[in-house]
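Lecture 7 notes: from sequence to structure.
We start with the chain below.
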Amino acid sequence: MSASRALWACWALWACWARAAPPPDAERLRAAVGGYAVMNCHLDFPFGIEIPYHLQWDKDGEEIFSWYSGEGAPRVAERWGGRVRRVGGAGTGGAGDAGGVGGVGGGAVNVSNVRESDAGLYRCRVSFPNRSPPARNNGTFYRLEVDGGNLIATPPSNVTVLEGARAELECLPKSAELSVRWLRAGAPVPTPPERNGSLVLARAAGADAARYECRVQAPDGRAQSAAAFLDVQFAARVLPAPPERFLPLGKAASLDCLFSANPPLTNLRWEKDGFLFDPYNVPGVFYSRNGSLLFNRVDESHAGVYSCTPYNALGSAGASRGVRVRVLRPPALAAAPPPLYLARAGEPATLACGAREEPGAPRAAVHWSRKDGRALPAAHALSGGNLTLRAVAPADRGVYVCRVSNEAAELRVESELLVENAPPRAPHALAATPRGARAVRVTWAPGAGGADADYAVWYRERGAGEWRSMRVLTRGATAATLLDLRPRAVYELRVLAQDRIGDGLFSKPVFVRTGDPEPGEEDATTEYTAETDEAPATDAALSTRAGVAADDDEADVAAGDADDADDAARWSAAADHSDDDDDTALDDLDVSVRLIEEGALVVWRRGAAGAAAAGAEAECELRWYDDAAPERRLLVARRTPQDYALVGDVQEGGRYWAAVRCGGARGGAALGVPQFARLRGVALGAAGAALLLAALAGALCAARRRLRRAKRAR
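Predicted structure tokens for the same chain:
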């Protein structure tokens, strides 16, 4: 007995010393009025094994929180009720820290709705009642400083009340001169505040549950606000519901019970025709998680009058009114539209959709709509459930939805309408401007659907029967330039739009007269370029000529006059990389040739020396030679202001030379076309030989196996 008294005396002396001892360097925390502060406290168990302990938090020597491990709710001082709680909850943690989460210790607490009076020195104390000594190196000091409390002395705290009870949200200003306003969802609260700034609701209703904000303002314009939540609890009660409900025969359906409950629902009871309805005893009927009835397959026995009664921790406010459930046949289709409907532009189109009439059942309604949410075309008509478009337009393309519904269910059928042959509209606002004696610039505006179309310019001399066409390289371009036209001639021009569907309509014609030629100007072949800031596509033809064969042009070039022959000889010498002084500018142009699907694409680039040598001349000349003959033979000669050209006539196994001259700058490049047919033959032959060798190897292996089996049999 004396030993026990001595032990308790030591414990009392230690507690007095701990209370009277000055705190070490406390960690400083800052919190705003109405905010929160988390104070950490780690638990240090002997040997890392958790044993029963007592957690206590003090403020300025006064106990505000106390909890014994293994107990339920902690004890909290009256002024701190609802504002101090453990961060880790009431459960136990692992060795070293009990209940700690998020990197904090098991003894950490959270102080919410901070007030000015909460500033002070806090201490965490952990003791072990069933162990000697009863304490270890546990305990932490915090110095809490409260900021922002210039106008509000006591901010509001979260309040939970029962429906019909008095609810008070406290908000005490520092001075009586300060004005207090209460807001709910940003709007002023009709109830005026009390003299002390508190908001009092004499009889709180379920609809009063919300977040309330207290806003305090000084005469000089300074303001401060703090918020809190009001939670109003009530017994579970039903909400208004329609008196009649239709369920589809032979299909799955659900019957909901509309209710409101705070705290949450704990139980829900159903009755049918005045008797308890237990889904567990009815085949094909189940409970959902929210208490609704789920019917796997509705039949006639499910008809009747149903009512539900919800319950929560506070009980129930009563059962719902009876809902009469009727079983009705779901709608059926007498005619369904096809999944895909192809219509021609400008012609009528009819999408059929009809409801089957059931004896003794109300007539089903048919509704049409577009899946993308757009309105139906203006020129449409509905007759007997069928949707008719009087004149199909390209904008009518899309997915149309037919809905057949009655009181029990709804049936949806989709049909996609495609518009056939809807090319872009003809370009308009065509304009042509002469550029000297041999060039004309053409501009136009795209028609509907032609913003991303390809364009071709068709032209001829006025009165001539032969048309020539040229394709614009850049898709969507709205301007092109015709070069090397005949001087003092009147030309008729038209523009044609093309897309993946096909050709559109020609634009209206426009006439233009070229200017007078300058003295000494030579004739040249017809070329064009699309005037655009974008780089031209490399996989499109640079020019085409309608009604004139390429062989005729090549024959004309090959049979040129003596000046052309001399020029060709000079180009051939340059292509042979002669060392004459006249050919020193051969490397001023970087020329490259590569094969593409349409032929050979020649691209050149002017360097600094090449640009200086070219001078002010804008056009470049390309000469295309057959390099396989004993002597080089000129095949094509053309002029273009661009830095590329496409040669379409390329033969397999051929060797070609491209020579380019831009003013005084020159360059050249060779191209050898592989013999693809021979390569394919060699590949096929090699594959056949490989298959033959594989077959021979298989035969040899089979023969060896037969010989081995024969030897074993002997």
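Points to note: Residues 390 and 607 are 63 Å apart (CA to CA). The first strand starts at residue 27 and ends at 32.
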